[in-house]
């Protein structure tokens, strides 16, 4: 299958990069974000939303696993996990064994699992399904993303939403406004004795002339940027090696440096940048073959990125206002295919994490025997989740963003500020 780039994905979904740039999408740098934090700092009580896209169609049945269900075992005997392998959540379900950190957050009631999420008349195409999820428009094609429309209605400031990906995703492109973009890149400074000497140049000295003082502040700011960006700095050759391992399941776009993306987001939140919504992604979930090992590796990576991110944010007032939403464009078929993988399906679970999340299960678990043309029947409309976070995290009127759709999930989010 031909590899799909993020740029071609944008074109195929109808929200082109050029169109986003035409309505104001722009790359921003560290200076502009830090200036915004100084001039208009994020209210410590304001809710912040981080949207994590899992590109490729994550297999929900091997993520939140009904391991004790005979229908599950019979449908995928080579792929199925046994009850003793999964991380027990109750109600006959368990997390994938690669998600031990998220199990800890579940035990602390900081993780919500929304079951059976999908949309009416599901589409098995990556492009059409992802367009539906990112525009929140199941019935008609629209050129704006759901968070882009939120930007349009919330003051038209592009810094209110930031993507840390190279190309702006459709969900952040509005009609009159589009989010800013600050791709993960990282800064590398000297280490050892040279590094110490360089850092010392950033120490202010009383009475020095204005030019030396300005140079000192610049060096100090540079070191502060590296400190805040943290793990966002990665060697390019390491990324190439990691991406090489993602040939299986990587045909639907997405990035492979989720931990670095979330490090950057955490640093921006802690610095007081006035951004209310962020977009990050992880790709590789198109597991038509050899699924079990590929998906567990990816879910382990997801866990290793999300868990320390949430833990880190628990340590600051602004961080405690962050809610994380994790989704994929569709789940997979109940029955395994002949290549020890699964084909494109429909409904799957969403994860919602954070201090203000009402942890536990939300929505009904789809039946494995009452199917629609061999696909799971969705029990929760994805727009109900969007309406909930729009209202309870971003303080917006969901009806203005979701074309009149205002049904929410009760008790998913406690007041976030």
Automatic annotation (TrEMBL):
Keywords in alphabetical order: Signal
Pfam families: DUF1501
PROSITE patterns named in the record: TAT
InterPro entries found in the cross-reference section: DUF1501 (IPR010869), TAT_signal (IPR006311)
Protein name per Swiss-Prot or TrEMBL: DUF1501 domain-containing protein
Source organism: Amycolatopsis azurea DSM 43854
Signal peptide positions (record): 1-22
Disordered, as annotated region: 232-254
Cited PANTHER family: BLL7424 PROTEIN, DUF1501 DOMAIN-CONTAINING PROTEIN
């Amino acid at each position: 299958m031909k590899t799909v780039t993020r740029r071609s994905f944008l074109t195929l979904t109808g929200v082109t990069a050029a169109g986003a740039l035409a309505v104001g999408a722009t790359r921003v740098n560290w200076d502009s974000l830090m200036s915004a934090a100084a001039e208009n700092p994020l209210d410590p009580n304001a809710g912040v939303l981080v949207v994590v896209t899992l590109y490729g169609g994550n297999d929900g049945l091997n993520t939140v696993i009904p391991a004790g269900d005979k229908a599950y075992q019979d449908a995928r005997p080579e792929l199925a996990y046994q009850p003793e392998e999964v991380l027990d959540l109750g109600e006959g379900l368990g997390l994938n064994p690669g998600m031990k950190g998220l199990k800890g957050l579940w035990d602390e009631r900081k993780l919500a699992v929304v079951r059976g999420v999908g949309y009416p008349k599901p589409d098995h195409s990556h492009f059409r399904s992802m367009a539906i999820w990112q525009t929140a428009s199941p019935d008609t094609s629209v050129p704006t993303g759901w968070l882009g429309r939120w930007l349009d209605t919330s003051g038209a400031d592009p810094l209110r939403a930031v993507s840390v990906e190279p190309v702006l995703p459709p969900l952040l492109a509005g009609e009159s406004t589009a989010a800013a973009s600050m791709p993960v890149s990282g800064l590398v400074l000297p280490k050892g004795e040279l590094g110490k000497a360089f850092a010392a140049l950033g120490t202010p000295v009383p009475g020095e002339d204005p030019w030396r003082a300005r140079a000192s502040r610049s060096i100090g700011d540079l070191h502060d940027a590296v400190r805040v960006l943290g793990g966002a700095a990665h060697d390019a050759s390491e990324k190439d090696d990691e991406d090489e391992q993602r040939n299986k399941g990587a045909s639907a776009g997405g990035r492979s440096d989720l931990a670095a993306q979330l490090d950057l987001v955490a640093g921006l939140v802690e610095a007081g940048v006035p951004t209310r919504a962020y977009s990050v992604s992880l790709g590789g979930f198109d597991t038509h073959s050899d699924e079990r090992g590929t998906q567990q590796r990816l879910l382990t990576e997801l866990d290793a990125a999300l868990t320390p991110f949430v833990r880190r944010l628990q340590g600051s007032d602004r961080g405690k206002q962050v809610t994380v939403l994790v989704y994929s464009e569709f789940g997979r078929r109940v029955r395994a295919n002949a290549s020890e993988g699964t084909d494109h399906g429909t409904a799957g679970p969403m994860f919602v994490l954070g201090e203000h999340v009402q942890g536990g299960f939300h929505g009904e678990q789809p039946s494995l025997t009452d199917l629609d043309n061999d696909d799971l029947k969705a029990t929760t409309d994805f727009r109900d989740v969007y309406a909930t976070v729009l209202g309870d995290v971003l303080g917006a009127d969901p009806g203005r963003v979701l074309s009149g759709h205002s049904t929410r999930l009760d008790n998913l989010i406690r007041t976030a500020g």
